Amino acid sequence: MAQSDDQDKALFGAKQTDGLVTAAVLVIGDEILSGRTKDKNIGFIAEYLTASGIQLREVRVVPDVHETIVAAIEALSGAYDYLFTTGGIGPTHDDITADAVAAAAGVPLNIDPRAVALLEARHGAEGLNDARMRMARIPDGADLIENKVTAAPGFRLNNIIVMAGVPSIMQSMLDAVAPTLKTGRKVESRTILANHREGDLAALLGELQSKTDVAIGSYPSFENGVFRTSVVLRSADADALTVAEAERSGGERGADEWSADEAETAAEH
């Protein structure tokens, strides 16, 4: 997802801070763990949050087991500024995310009149069977998250943002909740493309990492019979990135050993 600075300010600017804002994602569902359903949400959320100035620090995938979900919610919501969950808020018996969030927060779970009104507007009173009414169960004190696709809402309780697992619905909910989130400094990345195998650069990269707090990653590739390595420097501190990039020429083997013929600099959005 690419956004201009003006779009970012319009979407997130109301609650920007100078510090770092962190998040975790909790993916809930037996179908993900079994491989029956291929997750399409983690990458989207990661890119979306990075573009907004929220650093995704951890992702967990858990089964449809109440105690396991509760434990994960308690751990992740306590460790990060935000916890985003996907999956488990549909109409079936194994959709138990709302139950787990309520239990983790220590609040009751009840039929929410606001959610009922949304579902009734879409399905009519006669269409509100027991299954659909499960989607109107919301923990006390939670704010609803709009769902423009099917009307059944997600919700936010404290720093826990609960969204559907269906990608199009999740994306709609993420767009809806985004303006309410505080954001911090954006992470920038600089990529150096080197004509070397990753193993040949390992010592030099280790030396560079020992001199900086900038995150350094290396990603090998093999194309047209040539081994290459993309070295990616990531930091929310642009000055630190510049220093780290300059340091790559100061190692024992020097810049020539990188054989870098291309460099790219961009904010990660």
Shape: elongated
Kindly report the average pLDDT value: 86
Q: Number of helical segments?
A: 10
Q: Provide the β-strand percentage band.
A: 25-35%
Strand count, sense and barrel status of the largest sheet are: 6 strands, mixed
| CA(first)-CA(last) distance | 7 Å
Order of helices and strands: HEHHEHEHEHHEEEEHEHEEHE
Low-confidence stretches: 1-14, 250-256, 259-269
Number of strand segments? 12
Sheet with most strands: strand arrangement: 2-1-3-8-7-6
The helix fraction, in percent, is: 25-40%
Structural class: alpha/beta
Rg over alpha carbons: 22 Å
Description of the molecule:
With 269 residues, the chain is an alpha/beta fold. Residues 1-14, 250-256 and 259-269 have low confidence and may be disordered. The longest helix is centred in the first third of the chain and has 14 residues, at 66-79. The strands form 3 sheets. Strands 2-1-3-8-7-6 form a 6-stranded mixed β-sheet, with helices on both faces. The chain contains 10 helices and 12 strands. It has helices at residues 5-12, 30-34, 42-52, 66-79, 97-105, 113-123, 130-134, 167-177, 198-209, 238-247; strands at residues 22-28, 55-62, 82-86, 109-111, 137-139, 143-145, 154-157, 160-163, 188-194, 215-223, 226-235, 260-267.
